[in-house]
């Protein structure tokens, strides 16, 4: 009964969270409470009520968060189930915890975050890891399936579905997401919830807190005959059937063991100290009947873990390097000195301190302006959102990214506040402009400027040329996006390290024209 309840709740939560990441048609809106009750986002956003509620949940029922709420934890259960379907005789058994690895990863993640190297902390944060997989790997597949349906329905004269542009916003983000999927999938398929109980910093923190939970898995020694069936089915490797003990720091409260005990020796209720594994001692690993020896398996896990970490660390370094600038003709090349962070991110430092790169804002941006950064913010800010005007520009009235951000990295803005938020300043390169270069009229940049920071003034021979006022520019990128100059734009936006308030546009006062008589 408890397992069925857990499965039902987790499937609903997982489906809703996943669809919120995949949804490109804005069917789910911009507010989802499931994203805001994730542990690390709630912690970084300063949501005291949510953090306190999750801690209370853990102190009551153990690591229920890991099985009911965390999308990455639920995602691993799909691999567990697939492995059991393929191998009907698959067994887990009890293994001692890798305590040094657990606390080491948690310590490194915390120190990295405090030192401003948020990329490393976000790499192992469970909600963000799953978000990157959903946005960069699953979403393109989902959109391709939508386009297939659009083609089928359009063939029959029905336009229920419409074609959407499919693109990988950043190669680095796609590679990291794919590696994350491969590593976590491999762990879950072969070793159950080992990732949760070894690598995940949230799992480590909540795990040791769950030692003090009121409701736990209990073993009734008067009924238990030591068959080991519950331990063989425990994907957390936490039931020591030989000594009738449960390692509650690794128990994810999946209730699988309750379903597999034929003698009903296991129950979920008030904690029983006799069944707890002492914190100060690590009992020897006990292999269940029919399970291979523990040492080779642990060594295999260690090798795979070290290889995965080395590979993940090597990818960004391999892709690093200064971007080469090419010149063509009389165009003057330029390189943006500072990236543009999303409106409401306050500053690059604020974004670096709060963003764990879940890419929800990237997925929800209706103009496709946001993309994961590479080294634009430095190595510590890899994969954090930045503005790129290759595929569009920031809508003057849009506040979606701030509305959906669960971390508080992008603060919500009203439309009025958005109109005054200066993300960057306009820069005009006259030598690249097609007006003096090709002696032709244009004005596209001025037409797309919502604040009149770009105005057309007299040039010569009846032509007009842009004149910019950076003080009233908000950095929406409309001018840069539409500029037809190639290969280098004649107008672009230079980012602000700290977002400013743009000055209001003041129309120049014109002299009154006095007309004598009728006028013609």
Walkthrough of the structure:
This protein has 520 residues and is mainly α. It has helices at residues 2-22, 33-36, 39-44, 48-61, 64-68, 71-86, 99-114, 118-124, 126-155, 171-191, 194-198, 201-209, 229-232, 256-260, 294-319, 348-354, 360-364, 400-404, 415-420, 434-438, 444-447, 478-482, and strands at 215-219, 239-240, 245-246, 266-270, 370-372, 385-387, 421-428, 454-458, 464-468, 491-501. The strands form 5 sheets. A two-stranded antiparallel ribbon has the order 1-4. The protein has a two-stranded antiparallel sheet with strand order 2-3. Helix 6 packs across helix 9, helix 7 (99-114) packs across helix 12 (201-209) and helix 10 runs antiparallel to helix 15 (294-319). The chain is elongated, with a radius of gyration of 28 Å.
